[in-house]
């Protein structure tokens, strides 16, 4: 049997302890463990986290393998410390049938870098007109629990209500890309001082907040779960806080980039900063950080959105929105939340593993680091710094605003069901 002895790592940043992995689970935790025949990993100085879980990854396969493949995207995930990712449905063909979600699940399984949980589309072809076969996707081998038209908003309120009602039967959740389409036609960046100065069409906060207000009311009315993708405004945080206080089953995510970057970066006209929803103001960033710290926002999700060079090396208005984020997520969260004292490592584990796994109903991820738990673990060096060189990025796309920047915290080892996917920062 596969045996690994991780020596002297600090579980969630606590006191040093040894962890013995046997097979796919944690067999022992304690001081001075010995295990004949086990491979030894020196984890001195490293912090041990439960394997990270991403609720929002665009793997682009099938259809846009020039931007990313399931192989390249899940390898980027493992190097970023993730042991599971939810693969968004806006592929070509769209993941709106049991056949497509099973194909994505199987390709993820064969790549073997992390578990892939396919997200099913809410509507056929993401067209926002007819519900997709949600039940068949839930019952399929892929066991879909998260459904989203991400990239597009489920704008029709009656269709949204029906989707919320439908997924109750199998404990599913609708993950809404909250963007009122009529209020954002042609929108290029946050509506405010910067958009006015640049003379570009704005994307008002109200376009996000009006959909969130509507959908938490609908979820409360039908007694179903709704999840809000990539929350980006202070007002959205307030609405979610209000809904949670009323007992509505709403959860929410924020991206690393929305925790750090602001809309004034657009003055460069560099499309690397173009993203949906757009980068907002410093006041929004502060509210997002506070909301994540107090648990109003449940999770960090990368919204890893790879695009080929030609989709980004063009004029701002013609560029595709989105940024890659799997390999930089933990570092950016450390910068925005840990170095500012807003979250400790236990808090990071909660927002990047435990809660996202619970929202996605992944039973073998986000478990406590304890004897008997599945050995999905991420070991990080909290004191290391690294430069985001193109050569370290394994994604097929390069559209990250952090290219060339120095970031804190390195992912050193990642274990997936007891087997290393990353050792010493390299694919195992
Ligand atoms: N975030 C983005 O700007 N783009 C995403 C879609 C999305 O998440 O809305 C994409 O698929 O490229
Ligand atoms: Zn989206
Ligand atoms: Zn997305």
Please characterize this protein's 3D structure.
The protein has 428 residues and is of the alpha/beta class. It has two domains: 3-47 and 373-427, Urease, subunit C, domain 1; 50-360, Metal-dependent hydrolases (TIM Barrel). Helix content is 28%, strand content 22%. The chain has eleven helices and 19 strands. Strands 1, 2, 3, 4, 5, 16, 17, 18 and 19 form a nine-stranded mixed beta sheet that branches. Helix 7 packs parallel to helix 8. It is globular and about 65 Å long. The two termini are 18 Å apart.
CATH class of the largest domain: Alpha Beta
Record field, number of beta strands:
19
- For the termini, the CA-CA separation is 18 Å
Average per-residue pLDDT, rounded, comes to 98
Number of DSSP helical runs: 11
H/E element sequence = EEEEEEHEHEHEHEEHEHEHEHEHHHEEEE
Shape: globular
The amount of helix comes to: 25-40%
Bound molecules: N-carbamoyl-L-aspartate, zinc ion
The amount of beta strand, in percent, is: 15-25%
- The low-confidence parts are none
Task: State the CATH superfamily name of the largest domain.
Answer: Metal-dependent hydrolases
Number of domains: 2
Structural class: alpha/beta
CATH level 3 topology of the largest domain: TIM Barrel
Note the main sheet. 9 strands, mixed
- What is the CATH architecture annotation of the largest domain? Alpha-Beta Barrel
Whole-number radius of gyration? 21 Å
């Amino acid at each position: 049997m596969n045996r690994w002895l991780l020596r002297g790592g600090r579980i969630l940043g606590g006191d040093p302890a040894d962890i013995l992995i046997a097979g796919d689970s944690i067999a022992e935790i304690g001081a001075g463990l010995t295990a004949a025949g086990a491979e030894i990993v020196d984890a001195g100085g490293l912090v041990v986290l439960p394997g990270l879980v991403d609720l929002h990854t665009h793997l682009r396969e099938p259809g846009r393998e020039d931007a990313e493949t399931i192989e390249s995207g899940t390898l980027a995930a493992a190097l970023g410390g993730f042991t599971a990712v939810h693969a968004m449905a806006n592929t070509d063909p769209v993941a709106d049938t049991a056949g497509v979600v099973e194909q994505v699940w199987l390709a993820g399984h064969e790549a073997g870098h992390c578990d892939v949980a396919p997200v099913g589309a809410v509507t056929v072809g993401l067209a926002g007109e007819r519900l997709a076969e949600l039940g068949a996707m839930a019952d399929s081998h892929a066991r879909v629990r998260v459904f989203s038209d991400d990239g597009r908003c489920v704008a029709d309120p009656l269709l949204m209500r029906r989707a919320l009602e439908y997924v109750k039967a199998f404990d599913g959740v609708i993950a809404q890309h909250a963007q009122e389409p009529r209020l954002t036609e042609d929108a290029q960046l946050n509506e405010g001082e910067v958009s006015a100065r640049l003379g570009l069409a704005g994307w008002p906060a109200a376009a996000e907040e009006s959909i969130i207000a509507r959908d938490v009311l609908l979820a409360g009315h039908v007694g179903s779960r709704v999840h809000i993708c990539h929350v980006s405004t202070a007002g959205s945080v307030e609405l979610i806080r209000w809904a949670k206080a009323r007992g509505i089953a709403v959860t929410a995510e924020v991206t690393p980039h929305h925790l750090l970057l602001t809309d004034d970066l657009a003055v460069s006209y560099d499309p690397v900063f173009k993203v949906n929803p757009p980068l907002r103001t410093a006041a929004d960033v502060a509210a997002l950080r506070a909301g994540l710290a107090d648990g109003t926002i449940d999770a960090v999700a990368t919204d890893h959105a790879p695009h080929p060079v030609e989709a980004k090396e063009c004029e701002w208005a013609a560029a595709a929105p989105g940024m890659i984020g799997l390999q930089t997520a933990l570092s950016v969260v450390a910068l925005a939340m840990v170095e500012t004292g807003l979250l400790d490592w236990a808090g990071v584990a909660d927002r990047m593993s435990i809660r996202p796994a619970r929202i996605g109903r992944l039973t073998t991820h986000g478990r406590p680091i304890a004897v008997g738990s599945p050995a999905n673990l991420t070991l990080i060096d909290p004191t290391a710094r690294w430069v985001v060189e193109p050569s370290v990025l394994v994604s097929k796309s390069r559209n990250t605003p952090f290219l060339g920047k120095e970031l804190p915290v390195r992912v050193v080892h990642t274990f997936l069901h007891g087997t290393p996917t990353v050792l010493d920062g390299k694919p195992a």
